[in-house]
User: What shape does this take?
Amino acid sequence: MFRPCIVIPYFRHERAIGALVERLRPFDLPCWIVDDGSGGEAAAVVRALAAAENGWLRLLVLPENRGKGVAVMSGCAAAAAEGFTHAVQIDADGQHDTGDLPKLLEVARRHPLAVVSGIPVYDQSVPKVRFYGRYLTHVLVWLHTLSFEIVDSMCGFRVYPLQSALALWRGGAVGHRMDFDTSILVRLHWAGVRVYSVPTHVTYPADGVSHFHYLSDNLRMVRLHLRLLLGMLLRLPLLAGRRLLGRPAPDAST
Assistant: This one.
């Protein structure tokens, strides 16, 4: 059975969320917006959206800000409780091209036990420091996994098989904040979950809001990569064995 839905982690993106909901409506997929303790006007905007959408759009409100990972996985848990098998994570800031959603879902339908993750295809709006800065994370992730299977671990547009993702999350090792996207993908790979990649267009809105805190989140990412490096060393026989046995890399789907 393949029964997908959408989960949107939301924290004070009130200027972008309405347009994103409009772009998602034609796909006719149940959708959870998980408000990560926004408060004020930002919370009022998503309450009004959910009230106007006749049930396909559900709102889950966390009482305080706990981080992107908690928001995503709270939505995934709610979806699993209603019998959904897969959840599309899409960020609330409007960067991702919803027109690519059918491509991700088709790969997930063909490979229901796998994670399907976007590979960003940027236009000229991408800040150069972000564009080039991502490559350091790519190289570290290839080291952590001894594999090129994860093409991009930072893209917030992906499809999770809920059973595997929730089991890993409940184990308590996955990051809760800006470290979430990379940590869950690496740890799912370690657990034997395949990762398929699909190119997807990404645009940085001129009035976009970023909640990345330069000092605290960079320190968080440094700690993440140190933990993942240690985890790789502990799993070295397993990961090296996969390489020696020639586990084939998934095709990058288009």
Remarks:
- The chain has a mean pLDDT of 90.
